[in-house]
């Protein structure tokens, strides 16, 4: 017996963790600074931690009421109905739900190159094929409706990322509307807003008030510091929101995750500190590092270091973990997550010595 043909599938390559690098290099984990996975440098929202501790004794129960409460809270925030909020086990879980709801075998999707690998992975898991549109370094990674539509060929889902990972660029609201207008009625324009809290641009969830062909992806992993709990969601058009009940994995968002999410939404002081820290770190990196960088609306900076693999490996030996972006198709670069002031300064100093 064998699994189905998985030759078109590739493993997701995550940023390396502190424990992994420490064991490999024989270093003390406490001496390492991890700036490779765009995690929140301040940790989780304190109110979320309190909720995790408070609800830990209740993990023997299914999260039905907490999930309903969180969907209602998010619906209020985004001006939609609770049915339009599809909670999931992380943003990647929401991507799977959308693929499950929309893709028939043989359908295709259009993804950015470079971009988040799981867009294509999720489509292939659901028997879809994948086409790409470029986000070009020569254009400073500008995102435009013209480029997307030039490569559009009737795909069922068009993936848009704003802010874009790993470059930090954004796509204008007008371009999203142009793409939605310029694609077929049965094509979904999906805007991934995993990093939108760090941007000065507003969310595009309000587009759903007038459109049935736009959806938005959000997560608690970045700004709220809950990456380890795996909590994300999609905001979908009201016309087909009831599909969630038919494709939802039972209780995918756990009791602890839902309660932590509810608490994190109320921790405005923590969110403000997170955004201030990221803004300072972005400015410091771009002003201080001895290599070209690109403007970023996320909590990271893409840096042109010449040889991303060599620099990332050398930095690890000095206790600094940054992301080699070769797997994104950008072998000359590394991506640096915005850290604390101390961690960011140390990282830049190490990288400048290497450069």
Automatic annotation (TrEMBL):
- Which UniProt keyword terms apply here? Amino-acid biosynthesis, Aminotransferase, Histidine biosynthesis, Pyridoxal phosphate, Transferase
Q: Mind telling me which Pfam families this protein's record contains?
A: Aminotran_1_2 (PF00155)
- Please give the Gene3D superfamilies that the UniProt record associates with this protein: Aspartate Aminotransferase, domain 1, Type I PLP-dependent aspartate aminotransferase-like (Major domain)
Q: Which cofactor does it need?
A: pyridoxal 5'-phosphate
Domain named Aminotransferase class I/classII large is located at 31-350
The record's listing under PROSITE patterns reads: AA_TRANSFER_CLASS_2
Which positions does the record annotate as the modified residue N6-(pyridoxal phosphate)lysine? 222
UniProt cross-references to CDD domains, sorted A to Z: AAT_like
> Recorded GO terms, molecular function?
histidinol-phosphate transaminase activity; pyridoxal phosphate binding
Q: Which domain of life is it from?
A: Archaea
Biological process terms from the Gene Ontology for this record are: L-histidine biosynthetic process
Give the enzyme's EC designation.
2.6.1.9
Reaction catalyzed? L-histidinol phosphate + 2-oxoglutarate = 3-(imidazol-4-yl)-2-oxopropyl phosphate + L-glutamate
Pathway assignment reads: Amino-acid biosynthesis; L-histidine biosynthesis; L-histidine from 5-phospho-alpha-D-ribose 1-diphosphate: step 7/9
Which enzyme class, named as a word? transferase
Query: What does the similarity note say?
Result: Belongs to the class-II pyridoxal-phosphate-dependent aminotransferase family. Histidinol-phosphate aminotransferase subfamily.
Query: HAMAP family attached here?
Result: HisC_aminotrans_2 (MF_01023)
Protein name per its UniProtKB record: Histidinol-phosphate aminotransferase
Q: Which species is this record about? A: Natronomonas moolapensis (strain DSM 18674 / CECT 7526 / JCM 14361 / 8.8.11)
Tell me the name of the encoding gene: hisC
